[in-house]
Amino acid sequence: MTLPPGQRAVEGFPRFGTHLHHPPPPVPDDPVIEIAGAVTEPLALPLTDLAALPRCEIKADFHCVAGWSATDLRWEGVAFETFYRVRIEPLLAPGAPISHLIFEGLDGFRSIVALEDASAADVLLADHLDGRPLDGDHGAPVRLVSPSQYGFMNTKHLCRIELHTSEPPADDRWSPIAGHARARVWQEERNRYLPGPVVRPVYRMLIGPIRALSARGSQARRR
Ligand SMILES: Nc1nc2c(c(=O)[nH]1)N[C@H]1C(S)=C(S)[C@@H](COP(=O)(O)O)O[C@H]1N2
Ligand SMILES: [Mo]
């Protein structure tokens, strides 16, 4: 098993995120994905609509920028490329060449992903993990899965996709640990300003505390 540079395999699949100890957001009774930004008219797409699109399944490792990797996860859902072509493209304003998308979660988390990266064949709107519906820890009711990009691109609890014709400013752009704009794992694009290998040891120190806090808010733990 080969992992991307600077990654170490962990046992299982921990809950992890900037949500820290906060419990997962409640899933609305009738969840939607809002499509907004450079569209002729914003739309709230009921999640039940995903069932009308062809299903796909991938097996992939998951890599957090802090340095842990969960291996051999089986995700099911709809290929993002399909969703984009069938549900988003018809809404686009003419002459609005989309370059970036903002994926937003019910907890307010956001990831800014280049359309080129989101269009890769292994990028999914996933609603199942290892044969079971996605739980709160891993992003219920649906999350973005982009295995070739670090975890922070993989927005959980997805509720909104905003379309942009140029790169929007990142929320964390002034932070010394600002995430890389592409965040490709095999290129080790961890940090916006510094090379991946340089930030490895600093990021690794964050794993313990963030993991412990995230476990405190875990759905599994409160069951
Ligand atoms: N909505 C939301 N999505 C998120 C996060 C978050 O805090 N909130 N954290 C990101 C980070 S940093 C990582 S590593 C992965 C972790 O996914 P997991 O909790 O399923 O392991 O989710 C990403 N997506
Ligand atoms: Mo992460």
Estimate nothing, just give the exact number of structural domains: 1
The description of the largest β-sheet is: 6 strands, mixed
How would you name the oligomeric state of the polypeptide chains in this document?
Answer: single chain
Kindly provide the radius of gyration, computed on alpha-carbon positions and rounded to a whole number of angstroms: 17 Å
CATH class: Alpha Beta
Shape: globular
Distance between the termini: 34 Å
- Given helix and strand content, the structural type is alpha+beta
Quick check: average pLDDT? 96
Q: What percentage of residues falls in helices of 4 or more residues?
A: 10-25%
> Strand portion, in percent?
25-35%
CATH fold-type name:
Sulfite Oxidase, Chain A, domain 2
Which ligands does the model contain, each kind named once? ligand MTE, molybdenum atom
Q: Would you kindly provide a brief summary of this structure?
A:
By secondary structure, this protein is an alpha+beta fold.
Question: How are the SSEs ordered, and which strands pair?
Answer:
Layout: E1 8-9, E2 32-37, E3 43-46, E4 56-63, E5 68-79, H1 80-88, E6 100-105, E7 110-114, H2 115-118, E8 124-129, E9 132-133, E10 143-145, E11 158-164, H3 196-216, H4 219-222
Parallel strand pairs: 1-5, 2-11
Antiparallel strand pairs: 2-3, 4-5, 5-8, 6-7, 6-11, 8-9, 8-10
